[in-house]
Amino acid sequence: MKTENQDFGKSKYITKQEGSVKFFLHETDNNAIPSKSMNVFYNERMEINRDISILAIIAYNKTISQTSLVVVDSMAASGIGSIRLLKNTNNVEKMYLNDINPIAVELIKNNLELNKIDPEQAEVLNKDANLLFSEISRNSVLPDVISIDPFGTPNFFIDSAFKAIKKDNGLLCITATDTAVLFGVKPKACIRKYIAKPLHTDYCKEIGARILISFISRIAHINNLGIIPLLTFYSNHFIRIFAMSFRGNSKILNDLPKNYGYIIHCNNCEDRSLIIENLLKVPQKCPICLSEKHLSYSGPLWVGELHQKSYLEELSILNEKFNFKNKNRIRKVLKFALNEINMPISYYNIHKISQQLKLSSIPKLEDIIKLIEENGYKASRTHFDFISIKTDMKIDELKKVLKQNEKLN
Ligand SMILES: C[S@@+](CC[C@H](N)C(=O)[O-])C[C@H]1O[C@@H](n2cnc3c(N)ncnc32)[C@H](O)[C@@H]1O
Hints:
The chain is of the alpha/beta class and 409 residues long. It has helices at 47-63, 80-88, 102-114, 129-136, 158-164, 179-182, 187-194, 204-222, 249-259, 309-321, 327-340, 350-356, 365-374, 395-408; strands at 4-8, 11-18, 21-26, 69-73, 92-98, 122-125, 145-148, 171-176, 225-235, 238-247, 260-266, 272-276, 295-302, 348-349, 379-381, 388-391. It is 38% helix and 23% strand. Strand 2 and strand 3 (21-26) form a beta hairpin.
């Protein structure tokens, strides 16, 4: 990363580069541990979030909303994400870059000027995001894309975002960084913030993502809307949901029973099963180890698909075209995300189970997937955890497969 000093009025800025875009940052923020106490927030490690967001908006433009876009970056900080988007596509008609922090707003203006962005194309605002969404909702033209990228939970902004977004085929890009809450380390906080019980298990990342989507979807329903998750992206302690809005009460009502459910988890043998629709069918003991004492649950969860196949395929094409820094990691994530479609909820940590079984070495995940499929079950990798696999095989059978593989090698 290139840096150079620059005097800019009273503030001392440093120039940095992300992708092909140069931008200013306060010198005192350079190399600081990312936190709220920075003059203006910037986290180098979140570059992958910006990379995937740029690809996601361009893929949405190519496959869903084929018009020039109106985009609202409601928490823009330095503005780097939106400026990179503007530099990578000609199809943004209007971009609103907003931040509640006036120092950020000044920096955004300087960064737009540095990058010679037409002020007609990019408007800078200094409002609370909820107030901004509320004002936008009264406009005759509603934005195609809204991005919400807060510190911690986005829960507080979702209702007003649904009021502001284009009702049919709008794109919401929502980040949550309160992973300790969503992943069940702070279960009570999760119940308070997302009205759902989490589960601190090996597959808590997927459960956390499904709690977040369930919450977003329910707030959509309150606004007479539904959502279709296009991409659910977990990386480096954040979850980012890219979801499309739609109107239509009959589709919403039809989809209701199949989209929400609960997972039952046995803390003794790690068996898990899904409860959809009929909550009275909750098992009183584990079907595998028969324990009555070790069952716990999580939910309500989104139990529908996490991604749309054709959208992921377009994203994969774009990822190869744009040479972003995280291209290889994004390629891997998209490949595993494609594998996740039509697979059961949850995944098994093969490293952990191999150690529990005292296997002589950790098997190759591809070998285990092949063996599971040969036994007549489904199996795939998962983007949530590169050392885990998804399968509809039960835990006792999976252990047999791992032992069988050990004998074969
Ligand atoms: C995590 S940072 C955003 C990072 C930025 N999207 C990026 O990629 O660099 C969160 C930003 O939201 C802003 N913010 C916090 N609360 C806000 C609110 N209620 N309305 C608007 N902006 C807010 C903060 O000032 C901060 O700049």
